Every structure is written in C-alpha cells, then in structure tokens.
C-alpha cells in the first residue's frame, strides 16, 4: 500500500506525465483514465541475445521526461500505474512495449496482461486538460473543442460563472497589447519535471487561479480511485480460500 504522500505525488506525476493540455478536452466529461497497482512500475523490458524477454530496472532517466529511474519512481510514488487512450504513446528503443494506453501490467514473464474488470471499474476516473498546469498558458479555450450541448462545469469548481471568467480572460489574452505576469511554480513540479518547468512557468496566473478548483477536484478523484483499487484488492485477496 503506498503512503498518502506517495499517492499525492503520483497524482501530480500523472497530471504532467503527458501534454494533456493538447490531448484532452478542457471541458467535462473528458477522457477516462485508469489507475492500478503495478508490480513492475517504472521498469523496462529488454530482449537479450537469446531472444527471451527480461524485465529490468531503469537506472537512468528515459527518453521521455516522465520515464524516471525505477528507484526514484518507487521512492516517490510507489508501485502505481495508469493508462489513458488519449495522448501520444512513447515506444522506447529498448523494445519495451507502450504501457500507457490500456489498463495492463507486466507479468513475471514480461508479457502484458489486462487487469481484472473489478480493478478497472474501481480505478476509472474522467479527467480533462485542466489537470495539466500548462493548460493555463493558452488563450483559445473559448473557441477550441467546445462540447456540443453546452458546457457542464462542476458546481464545486465554480459552475457557469467560472466558465464566463475563463472565456473573458482568454479574450483579454488575445488583445494586441496584452502582457502576462509570471508567478513562481510549485517547487514539487519544478523538481519533478525540470525539462518542462520553463514551459509550465509560462502559464497565465489568472487562468491558473480559475482552473485551480477544478484541478484540485480532479486530483482528489485520482486519489479516490487509487483508494478504491486497493480496497478492491483487499476484498479480493482477503476472502477465505475454499479447499
């Protein structure tokens, strides 16, 4: 079981693991993510000369900025994994299969296996582009990918009043003489993602403030999903075996 700090770190990790501001809609219902326990989280698969696949720990950062070394990843977030059909899938040169598109985990034989239905049911949650800090760097949210039938912004995140303010700010940002004020970023994000930190720091502070309640709500949903997964695991493996 990961600690509460590791779960919170993982929610932050997932929020910036891909360019969700480009791949997810800003508005609900968003895209489904699945969270689960992954015994071989942050490990790679290599094929030695004998052709037998082998699971190895990652000792150096990978090609993609989200590919942290195994021990660093485990210390920070534990054995947790996620998947989402949106976004680009990074296929590494070492032969490791992409593991972020479907709710799958590696078995001891280095083969990908689908998760049990009760785990995917427990670990599913819908997220939008708001989850990524850089979503607050762009001024086109009032014109791009607007959902048919209107926008259903969660009431606890400000409801329609917040949407109005977001759209007003976007129009203001498109003014010819607009100048953006920069504010310091969360130190944890800067430490975790040094390669993308300069881009994250360019986000608009007013949009960030408007997005923050919804971002916090979605982060809580990630944490709830992980708790549900571990409850499902406990229920499954705590049942007495019938001989």
Features:
243 residues, alpha+beta, three-stranded antiparallel β-sheet, two-stranded antiparallel sheet, 7 strands, 37% helix
Write the layout of secondary structure elements.
Elements: H1 4-15, H2 20-23, E1 31-37, E2 43-46, E3 54-57, H3 70-77, E4 80-84, E5 104-106, E6 112-114, H4 117-123, E7 124-127, H5 159-173, H6 187-192, H7 197-200, H8 205-237
Antiparallel strand pairs: 1-4, 1-7, 2-3, 5-6
Helix pairs in contact: 1-8, 4-8, 5-8
Tally of contiguous helical segments: 8
N to C succession of SSEs: HHEEEHEEEHEHHHH
**What is the CA–CA distance across the termini?**
28 Å
Name the poorly predicted regions.
90-97
How many strands appear in the DSSP assignment?
A: 7
Strand content: 5-15%
Helix content: 25-40%
Sheet with the most strands? 3 strands, antiparallel
**Widest sheet: strand ordering:** 4-1-7
Q: What Rg is obtained from the alpha carbons, in whole angstroms?
A: 20 Å
Mean pLDDT: 84
The figure for the number of domains is: 1
**Overall body shape:** globular
Write a short abstract of this structure:
The chain has helices at 4-15, 20-23, 70-77, 117-123, 159-173, 187-192, 197-200, 205-237; strands at 31-37, 43-46, 54-57, 80-84, 104-106, 112-114, 124-127.
Describe the structure.
This protein has 243 residues and is α+β, with helices and mostly antiparallel strands. It has one domain. The chain has helices spanning 4-15, 20-23, 70-77, 117-123, 159-173, 187-192, 197-200, 205-237; strands at 31-37, 43-46, 54-57, 80-84, 104-106, 112-114, 124-127. Helix 1 crosses helix 8 (205-237), helix 4 packs antiparallel against helix 8 and helix 5 packs across helix 8. It starts with a helix and ends in a 6-residue tail after the last helix. Residues 90-97 have low confidence and may be disordered.
């Amino acid at each position: 079981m990961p600690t509460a700090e590791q779960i919170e770190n993982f929610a932050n990790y997932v929020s910036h693991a891909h360019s969700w501001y480009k791949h997810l809609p800003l508005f609900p219902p968003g895209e489904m993510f699945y969270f689960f326990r992954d015994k071989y989280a942050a490990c790679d698969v290599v094929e030695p000369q004998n052709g037998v696949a082998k699971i190895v720990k990652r000792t150096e950062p990978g090609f993609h900025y989200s590919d942290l070394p195994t021990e660093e990843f485990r210390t920070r977030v534990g054995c947790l994994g996620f998947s989402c059909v949106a976004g680009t899938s990074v296929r590494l040169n070492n032969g490791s299969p992409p593991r972020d598109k479907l709710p799958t985990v590696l078995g001891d034989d280095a083969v990908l296996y689908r998760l049990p239905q009760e785990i995917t049911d427990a670990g599913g949650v819908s997220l939008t582009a708001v989850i990524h800090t850089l979503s607050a760097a762009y001024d086109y949210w009032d014109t791009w990918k607007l959902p048919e039938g209107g926008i259903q912004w969660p009431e606890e995140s400000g409801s329609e009043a917040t949407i109005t303010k977001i759209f007003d700010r976007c129009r203001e940002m498109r003014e010819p003489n607009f100048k953006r004020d920069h504010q310091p970023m969360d130190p944890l994000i800067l430490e975790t993602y040094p390669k993308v930190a300069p881009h994250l720091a360019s986000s608009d502070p007013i949009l960030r403030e408007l997005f923050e309640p919804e971002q916090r709500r979605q982060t809580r949903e990630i944490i709830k999903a992980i708790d549900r997964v571990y409850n499902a695991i406990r229920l499954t493996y705590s049942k007495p075996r019938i001989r």
